[in-house]
Amino acid sequence: MVTDDRDPQGIGMTSARTRDRLVQRLARQGIREPSVLERIRNVPRHLFVDEALASRAYEDSALPIGHGQTISQPFVVALMTQALVETGNGVRQLGKVLEIGTGCGYQTAVLAPFCQQLFTIERVGALLKLAKQRVGSLGIGNVRYRHGDGMEGWPGQAPFAGILAAAAPVEVPEVLLQQLAADGRLVIPVGPGGHQSLLRITRTASGFEREHLCDVSFVPLVEGRG
Ligand code: SAH
Question: Span 12-216: which CATH code?
């Protein structure tokens, strides 16, 4: 069993009861997939934030992770994960999935068990390094990490059954659409700073189908490597 002073078992402010409250709240807000809710319950979010913020890790809010970036709000992480895996009748196990904007790695950890292989790209090297350690320490081994510009996707590994972007471009990047497999889904916030629409774009036989999931506020997708 892993024990360290970061309290991976979840005692005190990170207790099972605190996590239950978060999961109940997400369920009320429309997260329907039991496996997604279970995953949110089980991933220790307090290990992904600064120790000083650990007591707030199970609030449904975004928190700073340094370099001007934030860990996404649990509701948004759950919603994006659900949008990739839901079928209307349970969840689908995804093949290769691409994540853009690893950040602290929390979304990576939530998503990994739903994928055969998860490829994640982050432009800030220091964040990527920490994320890799944290995700690895949870025993998650099906993730490949790249320090680079997610706007280009990951051409050598395409096509993807799912692509999830955790930072917002002003318009949907064409190259990401081209890296979707048949039936593949791109879940991405799109729009100007702070006011974006979370979209799910599905590759169909005849083109691309777009759905608006909700209004969101993400950090901008920045071109180039940090
Ligand atoms: N889901 C993450 C939060 C990510 S915040 C989590 O759970 O922590 C968005 C991240 O996208 C930031 O870390 C930012 O550095 C990164 N980012 C922004 N533009 C990018 C780009 N073009 N390519 C890769 N990463 C990018």
Answer: 3.40.50.150
